[in-house]
Amino acid sequence: MNIEIAVSCTWFQRRLCWMMSSCLQQDPLQDGSPVPDLTFSVAYPPRNGRPTAEEVCDFFGGLGLRVKRFPYPDERAIQFRGLVRNRQLAESTADWMLFSDSDMVYSRQFFATLAVRLAGDLKDETRCISASRVSLDKDKSKRFFNEEDDTVYPSLVDGCAAKVSTWPVFQISRNCGAGYFQLVNVAAVRCLHGGLYVEPGECKDEAEFDSYHKTRSDSQFRSRVGGLKRIELPPQYHLNHERDNEEGRHITMQR
Question: Any residues with CB less than 8 A from the CB of 191 and at least 6 apart, and which?
């Protein structure tokens, strides 16, 4: 079984290093159920961030993580995320595709647990599968990455899931928001929905540099595939951060 994790990364390269580290640190279950094959599909504007997304992909690819690259000409183009996800779906060779933001950390048995469900009771599921996330305290997350963290990135973060499991929690949410866990059967999307995340001419995403980025294609996608199937999984941790709508402007800072 192969699960492809599709993300877009603009200014989130440090948190992406934590996310990729957690994927390299996955364990099988006690009964021997294995970790599925994991692939990352990373969309990014060229030379964005410090480190750049290209440097992060190079580093983790060198550690054995399978990474596919989707460069976009500029930061505005990549903000139409539904169109980005159309391309990631079209080029996928995976059984399942997980759409997420690039600021998640997964518990060590997260994907082995998920694979058991996907091979069992969820094998014929054609809806969007959703799981809750543990969103970490905003002040702690921002203070850590902006002030306390002295890591030179790109870097493998040892024991990242164990580290964040001790951080204070902002909220545990079962919502299926724009950057949460959205998992779909790739073959089903192709057979039933033309292989599209959203119809290109109907994508409702907006890129706003004077205000903030509006992502609406995710709700369009969930409606397109017939709604949600909610499941329970081990914790996935959201590395909280500054937001455009809270700052009242488009943020271009390293996160």
Answer: none
Which ranges in the chain belong to alpha helices (H)?
13-24, 53-62, 75-78, 81-90, 110-119, 138-143, 160-164, 186-193, 217-224, 244-247
- Cα gap 210→251, rounded to integer Å: 10
Residue labelled with tokens 């963290």 = 149
Query: What is the sign of the dihedral through the CA atoms of 67, 72, 73 and 76?
Result: negative
What 8-state DSSP symbol labels residue 128? E
Residue 197: phi and psi, rounded to 5, are -75, -40
Tell me the per-residue pLDDT of 203-224, one tens digit each, with 9 for 90 and over. 999 887 655 667 899 999 999 9
Question: b/e map of 115-125 (b: 16 or more CB within 10 Å)?
Answer: bbbbeeebeeb
- State the Cα–Cα distance between residues 235 and 178, nearest whole angstrom: 18
What is the model's pTM? 0.96
Quick: pLDDT tens for 7-52: 999 999 999 999 999 999 999 999 999 999 999 999 999 999 999 9
Span 2-247 CATH architecture:
Alpha-Beta Complex (3.90)
Query: What span, in angstroms and rounded, lies between the C-alpha atoms of 54 and 69?
Result: 8
187: Cβ contacts below 8 Å, ≥ 6 apart: 95
